[in-house]
């Protein structure tokens, strides 16, 4: 699942508010019935974890999902994103719990999509809790997050919560731990001195050496984006500078109806020779470059972004006070992603919507179209497939036979996976 909600620029009259939003799936409380069926299934089958003292559990499947409490009493399933600044709430969730307060004001946003998008702001003050840690923010961005990420999404939180803190993220054991500022990183970690994107000191740039081909390599600065499932995504400006359209002979074009805030997007998937980061070299890594002409993926202030697909290979400590990242390779360091279903699915309560599709890929050749409603995959209905199961199914070599509804017609479509 590719989920990219990049740097959202909110424009309200004369004010410009920078924020970033992330992809999320949600499985909020049963009593409020705001979770998806798959999330509920995942919650029911996940074994109890033993975590270090003070650790806050998250569920990791491409993104980091936390249980958050808003205004002391409203539970929500939210994603954390290092690129995001403020609280962001899905408009259906907001309408259910907070619309009666009448605090919304209109705004415009630009993000991972290729256009501006209308959103709303609530400036009434927002207290929330993540584990035992409390935070208060002035504003919340309110938008139709479920159109992008699927039913059950409640929202996300970002860098206001992390400002000045030192935080460990363990992708393999799925927990976050806020550390004392004076605590030193254990043996095996490598410190990377990073830079802030701007004076707001909310978005972090990390230096990485990238080898596209044997002939094309560069030292780049990448936005750290824990709201992105991708490993590495290059900006359209860099792609043009490196003339990647001519340099790369084996790419797959993927088009998204809704890539994030701002709507549609087009990426080109390829395999880079490798990246060098924190003393580790990762070879033959799946990468993409953007063809967007607007939005965050056309931002010339950085060369691209790195997301969880790369970070999950490390134990990660962020020092948000010193703008440093400490990385230690974990068991996923040489993880190889080979197969791709060729489609991107947005989970709904009882189905999936085809949101992204590899142009000329096996799924499209078999007859699949963006916007199609998928009601089963290899005989399994939506309530039998949570996000972790879907990810395993997508990355396996096994072919897919899916049941598709298009208008009043139901059909079966079978196709082999893409070898990306």
Topology at a glance:
Blueprint: E1 7-12, E2 15-20, H1 37-45, E3 56-57, E4 59-61, E5 63-70, E6 74-80, E7 87-90, H2 91-97, E8 104-110, E9 116-122, E10 126-130, E11 133-137, E12 140-143, H3 145-149, E13 155-157, H4 159-162, E14 166-170, E15 175-179, E16 190-193, E17 195-196, E18 204-211, E19 217-224, E20 232-234, H5 236-241, H6 244-247, E21 252-260, E22 263-277, E23 280-290, E24 304-306, H7 308-311, E25 314-319, E26 324-329, E27 339-340, E28 343-347, E29 352-358, H8 362-365, E30 373-377, E31 380-381, H9 387-395, E32 400-406, E33 409-415, E34 418-419
Parallel strand pairs: 6-13, 7-12, 19-24, 20-23
Antiparallel strand pairs: 1-2, 1-8, 3-15, 4-5, 5-6, 5-10, 7-13, 8-9, 9-12, 10-11, 14-15, 14-25, 16-26, 17-18, 18-19, 18-22, 20-24, 21-22, 21-29, 22-23, 25-26, 27-34, 28-29, 29-30, 30-31, 30-32, 32-33
Written overview of the protein:
- The protein has nine helices and 34 strands.
- The strands form four sheets. Strands 1, 2, 4, 5, 6, 7, 8, 9, 10, 11, 12 and 13 form a twelve-stranded mixed beta sheet that branches.
- With 420 residues, it is mainly β.
- A hairpin with a 1-residue loop joins β4 (59-61) and β5.
- It is globular, with a radius of gyration of 20 Å.
Mean of the pLDDT scores? 86
* N-C termini distance: 14 Å
Major sheet, described briefly?
12 strands, mixed
Approximately how much beta-strand content do the residues carry?
A: over 45%
Q: Based on CA inertia axes, which overall geometry fits?
A: globular
Find the structural class using helix and strand composition: mainly beta
Q: Which residue ranges are poorly predicted, with pLDDT under 50 across at least 5 consecutive positions?
A: 1-45
Number of helices in the DSSP assignment: 9
Helix content: 10-25%
Radius of gyration: 20 Å
The number of strands is: 34
């Amino acid at each position: 699942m590719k989920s990219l909600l990049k740097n959202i620029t909110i424009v309200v009259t004369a004010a410009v508010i920078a924020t970033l939003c992330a992809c999320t799936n949600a499985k909020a409380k049963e009593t409020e019935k705001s979770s998806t069926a798959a999330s509920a299934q995942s919650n029911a089958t996940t074994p109890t974890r033993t975590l270090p003292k003070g650790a806050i559990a998250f569920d990791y499947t491409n993104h980091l999902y936390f249980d958050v409490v808003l205004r002391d009493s409203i539970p929500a399933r939210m994603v954390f994103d290092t690129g995001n600044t403020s609280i962001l709430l899905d408009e259906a969730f907001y309408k259910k719990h907070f619309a009666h307060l009448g605090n919304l004001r209109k705004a415009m946003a630009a993000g991972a999509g290729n256009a501006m998008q209308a959103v709303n702001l609530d400036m009434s003050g927002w207290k929330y809790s993540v584990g035992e840690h409390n935070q208060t923010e002035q504003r919340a961005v309110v938008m139709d997050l479920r159109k992008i990420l699927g039913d059950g999404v409640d929202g996300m939180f970002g860098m206001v919560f992390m400002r000045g803190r030192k935080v460990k993220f363990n992708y393999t054991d799925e927990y976050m731990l806020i550390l004392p500022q004076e605590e030193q990183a254990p043996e095996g970690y490598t410190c990377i001195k990073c830079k802030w994107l701007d004076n707001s000191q909310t978005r972090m740039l990390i230096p990485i050496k990238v080898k596209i081909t044997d002939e094309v390599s560069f030292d780049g600065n990448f936005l750290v984006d824990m709201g992105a499932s991708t490993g590495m995504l290059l900006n359209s400006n860099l792609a043009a500078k490196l003339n990647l359209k001519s340099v790369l002979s084996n790419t797959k074009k993927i088009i998204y109806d809704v890539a994030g805030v701002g709507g549609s997007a087009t990426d080109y998937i390829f395999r880079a020779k490798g990246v060098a980061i924190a003393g580790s070299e990762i070879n033959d890594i799946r990468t993409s470059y953007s063809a967007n002409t607007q939005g965050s993926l056309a931002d010339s202030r950085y060369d691209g972004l790195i997301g969880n697909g790369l970070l999950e290979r490390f134990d990660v400590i962020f020092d948000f006070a010193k703008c440093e990242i400490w990385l230690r390779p974990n068991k996923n360091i040489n993880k190889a992603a080979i197969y791709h279903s060729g489609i991107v699915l947005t989970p709904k309560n009882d189905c999936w919507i085809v949101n992204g599709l590899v142009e000329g890929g096996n799924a499209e050749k078999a007859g699949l179209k963006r916007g199609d409603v998928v009601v089963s995959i290899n005989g399994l209905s939506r309530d039998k497939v949570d996000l972790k199961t879907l990810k395993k199914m997508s990355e396996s070599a096994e072919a897919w036979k899916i049941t598709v509804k298009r208008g009043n017609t139901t059909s079966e479509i079978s196709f082999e996976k893409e070898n990306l």
